[in-house]
Amino acid sequence: MKNKRIAALTLCLSVLTGAALFTQHAWLEPAYSQHAQQPGMGKPRMSDTITANIYADNWFVMYINGELVAVDSIKFMPHNVISVDILPAYPMTIAVMAKDNADATTGMEYANTSIGDAGFILKFGDGTVTNANWKAKAYSHGPIDRDTVNPRVEDAPIPQDWYTIEFNDSSWGNAREYTQQQVSPKAPFFEHDFQGAAFIWTDDIELDNTVVFRHVVSAPPDGKSRPDFSNLNNINPNAPHRKPRS
Q1: Ordered mean pLDDT values, 10 residues apiece, the chain (246 residues)
Q2: pTM of the model as a whole
Q3: Which terminal residue of the chain has fewer beta carbons within 10 Å of its beta carbon, N or C?
Q4: What residues does each domain of the chain span?
Q5: Domain 46-217, what architecture?
């Protein structure tokens, strides 16, 4: 009887040890790239994300690969930085609508007493930054001819699909870079990492009040290989590995 109890105890310990080793292996196993469509691919972890820092004078909304990712929580003042964690997938199409605070009919601010200025800057944890390689197009301009006595605004309809991957921006011009001195960012800007990024806008940083930016990142600028979770909804990450058909 004693020998049977010892044998049973040994068997239980072996099972528990095996289960622990299997669990440890499962947690430590790296996620697979979805380009390979690996069954049983691990779920994305926070370590798979990158941080996006965005500063706009005054407001922005950002889409990545056609999906809404970030919206500025403050429409006008105080100036703020939005930092979000994103799960990158390449190629990565970034589309941003940025607005300088301006009256819709006059293009002016502060009770129609002055002409404002604008600016937009962005940096992702993979090294993606704003610069003159981005596309930019203005959709609201004013006051026309800087006329502050009889101020008027010229608006163009914003395409409904401006944020999609398929949108054709080939006819757009490139963004123009501006210095910190020209934009004069407020304190929150200096508390976040924007190294290597440039402030951008159209050629007219004062009169173009609504601008859409677009940019495609074909591969991680920092050269790091990252799993592609873009098709996660169509894959069961917990599915067992299937045996190949004979």
Answers
A1: 45 43 36 41 86 97 98 91 96 97 94 94 98 98 97 97 98 98 95 97 98 98 90 68 47
A2: 0.80
A3: C
A4: 2-43, 46-217
A5: Sandwich (2.60)
